[in-house]
Design brief:
- The complex is a heterotrimer of chains A (417), B (520) and C (424).
- Chain A is mainly alpha-helical and 417 residues long.
- In chain A, 71% of the residues lie in helices and 0% in strands.
- Chain A has 17 helices and no strands.
- Chain C is mainly α.
- In chain C, 67% of the residues lie in helices and 4% in strands.
- Chain C has 15 helices and five strands.
- Chain C has helices at 11-39, 68-88, 95-114, 122-148, 156-174, 176-200, 205-228, 254-258, 263-281, 283-293, 295-300, 305-332, 343-353, 358-381, 387-402, and strands at residues 47-51, 64-67, 119-121, 243-244, 260-261.
- In chain C, the strands form two sheets. In chain C, strands 2-1-3 form a three-stranded mixed β-sheet.
- In chain C, α4 packs across α13 (343-353).
- Chain C is globular and about 70 Å long.
- Classes of the chains: A mainly alpha (417), B alpha/beta (520), C mainly alpha (424).
- Chains A and C meet through α8, α9, α14 and α16 of A and α7, α13 and α15 of C.
Chain lengths: 417, 520, 424
């Protein structure tokens, strides 16, 4: 027998979350997501420029000047977006040098508000990412989020006289449980009947909306109100905020980070995560290895729902303190974008969620200062997602080499399962 | 008169494989030309080239003496070439008429389908060639034989002169196969020419006018049924010049480990695949299951390892009835399973080697402490395994998918054979591997036997069966035709059994340990 | 040697037996509901009045007046008899038709109960049902076109939304017909994007659909906020007026319900018939379906799988565009942000419900439209059933269908699978 010619070399380096993330990113080419984001932002700027009327009025006289105006409009918009999401550098310096507490708070508020806005994105993105890892397409984060908000708001106002240390975890747990139930149903249907989770979670979304409409006009309606709105939750169920008004930054952000670490730990450190990832990567091999695919599928969808439910719980317990209809819009689809941009890795999802939260927050300022409607952000998100989902487009634009193992696309197996 | 079809010097390379190596083939008008070869010999690739599904890297095709360019199935259809694929290209929810006319529909004004005219033509073809079908039946309701007749009608409907039948009898019952042969004769009587792809010797001798044998992408030789006999064809087809050497001590069989009783199993299409077989495997012996692929071996292995439910019968493992047991329970009883398709069942290709090495033991001590997986320990163990089993990989963190086939298989062997074992189930353990890896894996399997495990080896490689087995069971059409001691068995003898020739027994060989019995 | 083709009970035959029983139980349960919830709560001597002229029509057709309780009891008995027959003998192939009949009887019983002691405009109800079914059916037809060719399209919602907006803008600027045309084109263009992403780049079809949905919500809200809010003249297209079909409209009862609508209704009916005919009776349809069932088989017969799929998806997008234009040019006469409100997804549900068949989808569209319409009216009638639960019904029903409880549908076999040619 031939003697070994290559000694196996193994790095005994301990794997860290960041290490795995970097590895995954570089394997799928770190460049593509970054270029996708950059291209999405550029195209967003182009839309801003193209919807600036002055560009057209000047075009006939001097196209060059018109282009300048367009570029200026885009730059001004992104400037406003930056000021609105990170903070105006001048104001921060002024505030710091003045040493006045209220001014400092105001100067740093945009940044902290961006973090606050990314909380539901983190949770919802994690929810979808967890599903992806188990080979499941949870398109129902929106509905799970909604149910989570309902259950946590209910526990928030219905239980009274509890200390915060008990009430708050109960309310959060109720949110997770509600979302988990909404994920469990399509998970169970998938595992037992093969009914495809994509269509079932879409249906569950609408059932959740109708249910919430019913509840807010009936059992959960605020006494004395004619509007469909829930009572305010008890102070003991509110997520504590760290600073005085206007800063809304609350504990939820750190819970979200903890959840991200939790998902990372579950996926990559525990045997449950190993089963989840195996079922997601190769269900046949998982069955061969003796794993219980029904159980894993149901568990993954329930956990995914629980995370989405936490997103809803954080919104009502941390920001709104009550629940009104249609308070969540677009988290369901955005979370799919987040999971894909973050390559279904918790760290990637957190980074993508911070990006989305920042964009959403800055967009408000952009609307006020540059008269660009906030919805431009959705357009940019869609473009970024398109580039991430079809990396070949980005590779063509930037003439990148196609990697050899180009198999990180996920496939859906048709409605019927 | 020039031959109807002439292939010259056809060469086709796939990444890492030379599927067709300078193949020449001629087909005369009105003849049945059998293309004989083992699975993976390159027969189907050659025919897919002729039908325009693949493009050859080199070579030329002549039809009726003129060079033909066949870049797509449309070109092939125009050139008068038609093919019945091994896996039928039929749409179950369409009627026979719709399936037949698809792509060359009879239409009325405005593209409206003229089903009546088409059905009429189908009836004509059907009665002219003795192909009994009802044009209005849905294909999903037809038996396999009927579906095949629809496929043949599809070709005749397009007025194909050259008919390629790719393993047409693989899915047929003997009666259906006889029916098909009649049809083939009536086709050639009317001037059609047929290329008949198969690996079944008896059929070739029964029906072919000429025979070309292909092995490893090359033409081994051409002959006629008059000049050849089964033994000669068998050695041309399976005979291998490279005889691998294996030092093996005599077996010391012990107690019964696996006992299969009257087992009946259905395949994915709900057809009976294993039809009431019984056998035993003892500790310290290798029972080789020989047979052409598709005779129920896959289903048998899946049932024994808990991946498929049996319809009837029992499986006992170490005295426990494991007929309904889960794969995990069977593994925990001390069973190793080297699966037939390593990439589909045995590995998670985008997981690192280390994770693949614990794919079915990850949840146990010491790899998991409670919920937590011990990645460091798993990596350390993996390094030892990689060294012990000579797995060539840059590191244990490398994804399994980036290893060569031989090393992927060694990962599986390392995982399965590094546990205390009572039973080893190895299905096609060396398919597609290089000689070095084959030797290595053979050695490991014999070592397991010597350590006292019972080994159930399933292989369509006759050489492999002959070398490793202590006893050989030959499967044909879901039954065990014979069980005989490996010592003294000849390749020809087993080749004949594999072809289903249990009737004309060359020697009657009562099984050594009287308990194993034939079930024919 | 024993015969190879031993038949064993297949999953399919087991399924039919279970399905027969399930259906029978469903019928009996509906009979029970009629008796328990409706009959028992109705006092003897109550009278139900159905008005058979939709509001605003000149025709004068007498009202339908009957005693509530006797009719309810008759309906309950008929349903129970059908259920019993189903359990004992089974209706076989006609089971689906019988299911439709029982559903109709049940709905009639429900309405009789609701209107006991009062008057209900049955004709108006049916007319409104037809109108509400328009966008749902068109969405479903769009889905059928795409999925019959093997491409999943969850972007119908987004296509409809974008089309609704462009139809409103161009309709305001250049007239209704230009508006309609641009709506159809908008749907087609978005579908082209979906086709390129999912067929050329082999992006997951769900992801690609999601991209279009996010994009559509974003771009329509963006333009709406930037232009439509401030410039009313850009968002005031008006609506297509009703067309009376001469002769037919004078048929009592049916005429005013079915033959006096605007072009969207008649367009839907024509497209419905065309699609059904096209899919099942023409070469075009045979090839399209073959690509969705078994693309490789189609390929071996010389059919261009990619081109067929592109064509189907783009036509499907145009269909969704037509349905989207309905919202602005056929219904309210202006664009509002996210005004489609999930109708595209209900269309998807109707497609599954209708078993990927145009007329089945239309039936589902009617059912969903009816639930939609009834929810709006129940409150007016002062009925104790929360309307939200009626609105949930289509979604729950779709999930039940998907779970295969009442028999699994015939989804195109290659739905959602990208096609890749080998050996090149």
């Amino acid at each position: 027998m031939a003697k070994k010619d290559t000694q196996p070399q193994t790095s005994s380096k301990k794997k860290t979350a960041f290490g795995i993330f970097l590895e995954e990113l570089t394997r799928g080419s770190l460049l593509v997501p970054i270029l996708a984001i950059v291209t999405g932002l550029l195209l967003g700027g182009l839309i801003v420029a193209l919807t600036t009327e002055q560009v057209y009025t000047t075009w006939s006289e001097s196209p060059l000047e018109a282009i300048g105006i367009g570029v200026n409009a885009a730059l001004r918009s992104y400037g406003a977006l930056f000021n609105g999401s990170i903070g105006n550098p001048e104001r921060i310096i002024d505030a710091l040098s003045s040493g006045e507490e209220a001014a400092i708070r105001r100067a740093f508020n945009p940044f902290l508000e961006s973090l606050t806005k990314s909380v539901p994105y983190i949770f919802a993105g994690l929810a979808v990412a967890l599903g992806f890892r188990a080979g499941l397409f949870n398109i129902g984060a929106e509905g799970q989020l909604f149910i989570g908000a309902i259950t946590s708001v209910y526990v928030g106002f219905a239980l009274t006289g509890l200390p915060a240390i008990i009430h708050l975890p109960l309310a959060l747990g109720a949110g997770a449980l509600g979302g988990a139930l909404w994920g469990f149903i399509p998970g169970w249907l998938k595992a037992k009947t093969g009914g495809h989770e994509v269509i079932n979670t879409i249906m569950m979304n609408y059932i959740a909306f109708r249910l919430s409409e019913y509840l807010l006009r009936g059992p959960l309606q605020r006494p004395g109100s004619t509007n469909p709105i829930s009572p305010f939750i008890e102070a003991s169920a509110q997520l504590p905020r760290f600073f005085d008004s206007p800063i809304r930054f609350h504990l939820g952000f750190f819970i979200a980070l903890a959840a991200a670490y939790g998902v990372y730990w579950l996926l990559f450190k525990t045997r449950i995560g190993f089963e989840l990832r195996t079922v997601g990567a190769n269900p046949k091999a998982a069955r061969y290895a003796g794993m219980n695919i029904v159980w894993v599928t149901v568990l993954a969808m329930s956990l995914s729902g629980a995370l989405a439910g936490m997103a809803g719980a954080n919104e009502v317990l941390g920001l709104n303190y009550n629940l009104a209809p249609a308070f969540s819009s677009g988290y369901g689809f955005d979370s799919i974008a987040l999971a894909l941009i973050g390559k279904s890795h918790p760290l990637g999802v957190v980074l993508a969620a911070l990006l989305f939260g920042t964009l959403r927050n800055g967009a408000l300022q952009m609307q006020i200062a540059a008269n660009v409607p906030v919805d431009i952000i959705s357009v940019m998100q869609a473009l970024i997602l398109a580039f991430i989902a079809a990396p070949a487009i980005i590779r063509t634009i930037y003439r990148l080499r196609t990697p050899e193992d180009d198999d990180d696309q996920l496939h859906v197996r048709g409605w019927g399962g | 008169m020039p031959p109807v079809l002439e292939l010259r010097n056809i060469t086709k390379r796939f990444p890492g494989v030379l599927a067709n190596d300078r193949i020449d083939l001629t087909l005369n008008r009105g003849e049945i030309h059998a293309l004989l070869g083992e699975n993976g010999a390159g027969k189907s690739t050659l025919m897919n080239i002729l039908y325009g599904l693949y493009q050859p890297d080199e070579g030329e095709i002549f039809i009726n003496g003129e060079q033909a360019r066949i870049n797509s199935p449309t070109d092939a259809i125009h050139a008068g070439v038609g093919m019945v694929h091994q896996h039928f290209m039929l749409i179950p929810v369409f009627t026979v008429t719709e399936n037949v006319m698809l792509g060359s529909e009879s239409i009325k004004v405005g593209g409206v389908l003229d089903r009546k005219t088409a059905a009429e033509r189908i009836r004509e073809i059907s009665s002219a060639y003795g192909l009994a079908v009802n044009p209005d039946d849905y294909v999903r309701d037809l038996p396999v034989g009927g579906q095949q007749r629809v496929e043949i009608i599809k070709l005749l409907y397009r007025e194909a002169d050259i008919l390629i039948l790719d393993e047409p009898t693989a899915v047929l019952t003997p009666q259906e196969a006889d029916e098909l042969f009649k049809i083939m004769h009536s086709l050639t009587e009317r001037g059609k020419s047929i290329i008949f792809i198969t690996h079944k010797l008896r059929e070739v001798l029964d029906i072919a006018d000429r025979i070309t044998v292909i092995r490893r992408g090359q033409v081994v030789g051409s002959t006629t049924p008059k000049q050849a006999d089964q033994n000669k064809l068998a050695s041309m087809m399976v005979g291998r010049e490279v005889d691998l050497k294996l030092e093996k001590k005599a077996a010391k069989p012990g107690a019964v480990v696996l006992e299969v009783e009257n087992l009946k199993i259905a395949d994915d299409r709900n057809q009976i695949a294993v039809d009431g077989i019984s056998f035993q495997v003892h500790a310290g012996e290798v029972l080789g299951v020989a047979g052409v692929q598709g005779n129920g071996q896959t289903e048998l292995v899946e049932a024994v390892t808990g991946l498929r439910n049996a319809l009837e019968g029992h499986i006992h493992l170490l005295g426990e009835d494991t007929t309904q047991a889960s794969p995990r329970h069977i593994t925990e009883l001390g069973t190793a399973h080297i699966p037939e398709d390593r990439q589909r069942d045995g590995l998670v290709l985008n997981f690192p080697v280390a994770d693949n090495l614990v794919l079915n033991t990850y949840y146990k001590q010491p790899y998991s402490q409670g919920l937590i997986m011990q990645h460091e320990l798993i990596a350390e163990t993996a390094k030892t395994r990689v060294e012990n089993f000579d797995i060539r990989t840059p590191s244990v963190e490398t994804s399994a998918g980036s290893l060569s086939g031989g090393n992927q298989q060694k990962v599986i062997v390392a995982r399965e054979l590094s546990r205390p074992l009572k039973l080893v189930v190895a299905s096609q353990p060396t398919r597609g591997l290089d000689v070095g890896s084959i030797e290595y894996i053979h050695g490991r399997l014999v070592a397991s036997r010597d350590e006292g495990a019972a080994v159930l080896l399933v292989s369509s490689e006759l050489d492999e069966i002959m070398q490793l087995s202590d006893r050989i069971a030959v499967m044909y059409r879901g039954k065990i035709v014979d069980v005989l001691p490996a010592k003294g068995a000849s390749k020809e003898q087993i080749g004949l059994l594999m072809a289903g020739l249990s009737g004309q027994k060359t020697l009657k060989n009562p099984a050594k340990r009287g308990k194993s019995r034939k079930d024919a | 040697m024993s015969s190879q083709s031993t038949t064993i009970p297949t999953v399919a035959s087991y399924g039919t037996a279970r399905r027969r029983t399930t259906m029978g139980i469903v019928f009996l349960a509906l009979a029970g509901v009629i008796w328990y919830f409706f009959s028992r709560t109705t006092q003897a001597g109550m009278i139900t009045t159905f008005t058979l002229n939709p509001g605003g029509s000149q025709a004068n057709f007498p009202d339908l007046v009957f005693g509530t309780l006797p009719i309810l009891n008759v309906l309950a008995s008929v349903c129970a008899l059908i259920g019993a027959f189903q359990l004992v003998r089974g209706f076989g192939k006609r089971t689906n038709a019988v299911l439709g009949l029982v559903a109709a009887l049940f709905i009639f019983a429900f309405l009789s109960w609701v209107a006991s002691g009062a008057s209900l405009n049955l004709a108006g109800l049916l007319r409104a049902t037809l109108i509400r079914a328009i966008p749902i059916t068109l969405g479903a037809l769009s889905g059928i076109l795409c999925e019959r060719a093997g491409v999943v399209n969850i972007a119908i919602e987004g296509m409809m939304l974008t089309s609704a907006m462009l139809a409103a803008i161009f309709g305001s600027l250049y007239g209704l017909w230009v508006g309609l045309f641009s709506g159809v084109i908008a749907g087609g263009l978005l579908a082209l994007v979906h086709a390129i992403l999912s067929i050329k780049y082999k992006t997951d079809q769900i992801v690609s659909g999601t991209v279009i949905n996010i994009f559509s919500i974003g771009i329509t809200s963006f333009i709406s906020a930037k232009y439509l809010a401030s410039s009313r003249h850009l968002n005031n297209p008006g609506i297509f007026s009703d067309i009376q079909i001469p002769g037919l409209v004078d048929i009592p009862f049916i005429g005013p319900i079915a033959f006096s609508h605007n072009i969207f209704f008649f367009g839907m009916v024509i497209l419905l018939a065309l699609l059904h005919f096209g899919l099942f009776f023409t070469r075009w349809g045979l090839r399209l379906r073959s690509v969705g069932e078994h693309p490789k088989a189609a390929d071996t017969l010389g059919i261009n799988v990619f081109r067929t799929r592109y064509m189907a998806v783009i036509l499907g997008g145009m269909m969704a565009g037509f349905g989207g234009a309905y919202f602005t040019l056929g219904s309210v006469g202006r664009f509002d942000e996210v005004m489609t409100a999930g109708r595209g997804f209900i269309g998807l549900a109707a497609m599954i419900f209708g078993n990927w068949n145009p007329f089945g989808a239309f039936g589902a569209g009617l059912l969903f439209g009816f639930a939609d319409m009834l929810a709006a009216r129940l409150a007016i009638l002062g009925v104790r059933v929360p309307s939200e639960f009626l609105l949930m019904a289509p979604y729950v029903a779709t999930m039940i269908i998907l779970a295969g409880v009442v028999g699994r549908g015939q989804m195109p076999a290659a739905d959602g699978q990208p096609y890749e040619k080998e050996g090149h």
